[in-house]
From TrEMBL, chain A:
Belongs to the universal ribosomal protein uL14 family. The keyword Protein biosynthesis does not apply. It comes from Pelodiscus sinensis (Chinese softshell turtle). Its main location: mitochondrion. One of its GO terms (cellular component) is mitochondrial inner membrane. Keywords: Mitochondrion, Ribonucleoprotein, Ribosomal protein, Transit peptide. InterPro entries: Ribosomal_uL14 (IPR000218), Ribosomal_uL14_sf (IPR036853). One of its GO terms (biological process) is translation. One of its GO terms (molecular function) is structural constituent of ribosome. The lineage of its organism: Eukaryota, Metazoa, Chordata, Craniata, Vertebrata. It is found in: Mitochondrion. This is Large ribosomal subunit protein uL14m. The keyword Ribosomal protein applies. Pfam families: Ribosomal_L14 (PF00238).
Amino acid sequence: FSFKFHLSGTCAHLQTAVGLHRCHLNITGACSAIQKMTRVRVVDNSTLGNTPYHRPPKCIHVYNKSGVGKVGDKILLAIKGEKKKALIVGHRRPGPCMTPRFDSNNVVLIEDNGNPTGTRIKTPIPLILRKHEGEFSKVLAIAQNLV
Amino acid sequence: MAAVCGRFLEPAVVRGLAQASAARPGARCRYFSSSALLRANSGEPPKFQPPPKPVIIDKSKVVVERRFLSPEFIPPRGRKDPLKYYIERIDMIRRRKVLNIPEFYVGSILSVTTADPYASDKTSRFVGICIQRGGKGLGATFVLRNVIEGQGVEFCYEIYNPRIQEIKVLKLEKRLDDNLMYLRDALPEYSTFDVNMKPVPYSPNDEIPVNQLKVKMKPKPWSKRWERPYFNIQGIHFELPEEIMEEAQKLSQPWIKFDMLREYNTSELEKKIWNEVNEKLKK
């Protein structure tokens, strides 16, 4: 899909508020899978992921041969001015048949050794993660809903 | 019978006639009237009881059982050899004999149980509303959508995939559109369905109810411009300003419905395939 949005409709109200400055809001459509510069949603209950910040957490590197991250890939996230590793648990791109497609790009914060930072994950997690039980066993242990 | 009405009959004769009419229930009793019985019991003059209204059974309007042919049986328009579709249909019917694939439409709520090697107890169940039915033949798919814990989840299932163990229709209904992809941009309450909801019973002879629900949308931007006449969506309650709706109507193409090259009349094909499929399924 290619998305194009009318900037006039979305930042018209902002134009009037800010005055004569033209705000250059780049609102691209959701980049289907996760790659560099995608804004992600942190899904666990860690403090780093849940405290509000004026910039959304963004992916800055995908630990993959291709730069596109799917479910089960590790990525580097820029949150609150810090770098943090994370695990992709769901994306907007339709994957293989019989796998879930989520409405947002979901991510779980992770340490370098693979331990999750948070203690609970409320949002549904795909069952495909069980394929690599060894790496993600701790993440699956704190997950409450498995889809 | 009219001559008998109002005549005073003796109780014994009345009882005898009543017994006779009871013995032959089918026979029309011409000589017995209930009003005379009433008069026989009390000495008052009989009240005029009009004869019972005749029940008219209109045999020309017999209720026909609903003929439903799943859309993946109908071959697409093209120049392929119909033998290919015939062979595919044989395989589809073989699978249908093993797994009961019920009749469902876009907008009905289904629950699907699949075999999953990565799930505890090896099966996974998903409940959702069918938003799209695509593909023809063995690759036919349907997409179920549900919102779980505030997160919208969609599953694209292949109807003839051997991993599917059960497809159950929890609520059979149609919506105003054939494609409910706009539910992604609608408020999440319209896509939330209880995972443990009880199946709503329906009889195979009733007409399928059409849900006239008009869905409210989240603020723009949407993933597609649903107000445009290309999508021809009836099921959204647009709260957009009139200028945007008029701008969208400028892109309408009213000549398309007169285009004869786009016509694809499937009624005869459907009848043939329906007969063929039914015969084989009954074997």
